[in-house]
Design goal:
245 residues, globular, 7 strands, seven-stranded mixed β-sheet, Rossmann fold, binds S-adenosylmethionine, alpha/beta
Length: 245
């Protein structure tokens, strides 16, 4: 993880969740829950068959303060058939520290690790999730590809990669309004609440430059994934991709 990015997350960790909820009017909470619901469907084998005789392992990469890992744990705790071992990895000690104190996360195994060099053998996980972090792994398409290949490496054959990330609305007028919102609201409000100018400059720089949904699908395909699907959230402001090894 780059030093600058680690410093940003150290600065924004205390207010990180609050700002997300304010800036998305709470929609980030619903989007993670939707991603966890898709994960549970995958676990239940409704979409893809998975043998039940071995533990179903999930890794939440760039888990941050653990909101996605918590939603996964809550979902998987609901029914015996959804039982899973959940792991979470992040490169920021400050963010992991916040996650570890949360209810529902006691059974989650945390690792401090860079997403590009995850300390797991090949073919370890049935499912890898990542939420609102892929942008951080994208200084350029080549770097993004190498992270995606790392996720591919540690997924079991037939395992699924699930990506929840901001995207680009397909309708030009909505896209223009969305970019204006990022520039005029996200950047100053993020700074005002967190006190971190660098943090919200970074966010407002990376959001408009990230891929649209078909472009991200193409990158996943290039990294080796197949059966790639996506659904758009809030007119394409965000998207959930699933892709199979
Ligand atoms: C925007 S937060 C998202 C956190 C969480 N997934 C969520 O849904 O709120 C991005 C997280 O990615 C982590 N991160 C960024 N680059 C990373 C890298 N190269 N390796 C590991 N973690 C990284 C940061 O520490 C931060 O916790």
């Amino acid at each position: 993880m780059k030093k600058g990015v680690r410093k940003i997350y150290q600065e924004v960790a205390p207010t990180y969740e609050l700002i997300n909820h304010v800036l998305t009017l709470g929609m980030d909470i619903l989007w993670r829950k939707r991603a966890a619901w898709i994960a549970a469907k995958i676990r239940a084998g409704e979409k893809y068959a998975s043998p039940t005789s071995r533990p179903f392992r999930i890794l939440d990469v760039c888990s941050g303060t653990g909101e996605m890992a918590r939603d996964l744990a809550v979902r998987m705790d609901r029914k015996k058939a959804l039982k899973a071992e959940i792991y979470a990895a992040d490169g920021s000690p400050s963010m992991i520290h916040r996650a570890k104190n949360k209810e529902h996360l006691r059974s989650v195994r945390f690792t401090l690790a860079d997403a590009g060099n995850l300390p797991f053998p090949d073919s370890t996980f049935d499912l890898i999730t990542i939420s609102f972090s892929t942008r951080n792994l994208n200084p350029n398409p080549q770097a993004m590809l190498s992270y995606l290949r790392e996720f591919f490496r540690i997924l079991k054959p037939e395992g699924t990669f699930l990506n929840l990330e901001t995207s680009q609305p397909p309708l030009p007028v909505i896209k223009t309004l969305y970019h204006l919102y990022i520039r005029l609201i996200v950047k100053p409000a993020g700074y005002l609440i967190s006190g971190s100018r660098a943090g919200y400059n970074y966010l407002s720089y990376t959001m408009p430059r990230f891929y649209d949904a078909p472009e991200f699908s193409a990158l996943c395909r290039k990294a080796g994934f197949s059966f790639i699907q996506h659904s758009l959230l809030f007119l394409g402001a965000a998207a959930i991709h699933t892709a199979r090894k």
